[in-house]
What we know:
- The structure holds 2 protein chains of 2 kinds.
- By secondary structure, chain A is an alpha+beta fold.
- Chain A has 2 helices and 4 strands, in the order βαβαββ.
- The relative contact order of chain A is 0.26.
- Chain A has a 4-stranded mixed beta sheet with strand order 1-2-4-3, with helices on one face.
- Chain B has helices spanning 3-21, 35-50, 98-101, 106-120, 126-135, 144-150, 166-173, and strands at 25-30, 54-59, 139-143, 161-164, 178-181.
- Chain B is α/β, with parallel strands linked by helices.
- In chain B, helix 2 (35-50) packs parallel to helix 5.
- Chains A and B meet through helix 1 and helix 2 of A and helix 2 of B.
Amino acid sequence: MKADQVLDCRGLLCPLPVIKTTKAIKSLAVGQVLEMLATDPGSKPDMLAWSKQTGHELLEIHEEQGVFRFLIRRTR
Amino acid sequence: MGTVDQLVVDRTQTAREETGKKTKRLAMVASKGTLDMAYPPLILATTAAAMGWEVGIFFTFYGLDLLHRQRVKQLKVSPVGNPAMPPPVRSLPVKVPDILGALPGMSAVATAIMKRWMRASHMPTVEELLELARESGVKLFACATTMGVMGVRQEDLVDGAECAGATTFLDFASEADVTLFV
Lengths: 76, 182
C-alpha cells in the first residue's frame, strides 16, 4: 500500500512519535494513509493504544531490523 | 439468558457506547519542581492530548515552578537522598554516595548530566513540552494558594497559566476519567 505521507520518528522516544503522528494525521484528508517509522520498542503498543483511543485505523505494523513501520488511515 | 441478565448486557452496552462518545478527561496534579519530576506529568499530558483527551494539570507547591517564566529555566536534579541516581559514567558500577552528592556544585553536575542524556535521546526540554501542552489545549492551572504563599504574581507565569484554587481543579477533576498525582 502506498502512503500519502511519510513521517520519520526513528530515534525518537515517547511521547514524540505519538505527538508527531497526531499532528501529521491532522494534515491528511480523511481516508488518506500515513506511514510512520519508529525505533522505540514502546511505539508498537503505544500506536495500538493510540489507534484505539483516537479511532484512526492502524492498517499494518511491520518490524524489520528494529524499525517499526506503521500504516495509519485517517478515519474522521 | 434471563431478563435480568439481558438488562445487564443492554446497560453495559449502552454504557460502553456512551463512554465511546464522551471525550475522555485527564486531571493531574504536578507537585514537584525538580527537572526529573517535571517530565512525567508533561509527557502524560501531551500524550493524552494527542489522543484527543481533555487535559488539565494543577501545578501546586514546587510544581508551580514549572509554570514560572524564570524558574522553569533553572530546574535541577538533586543527587542527595536519591539512591536511583546513576553514576556520571554509565559503565561504572558505583553509585554516587550521598555525602559526595551533598558537596557544592553536585546538583549542577547531576542536572547537566540529565540534560545531556535528554539531548542525546532527542527528548524535548521541559519548556518545549510545556509549549506542546499549551498548543494542544492542555489547561494549566496555577495553584492560587502557592502563588500567595510564595509571592508569585500572574505576570511571573508563562502565557496560558490560569490562577485557580483547589475548588476549580476539583470541579474539573470530578468529571475526569483518569486522575493522577505526580
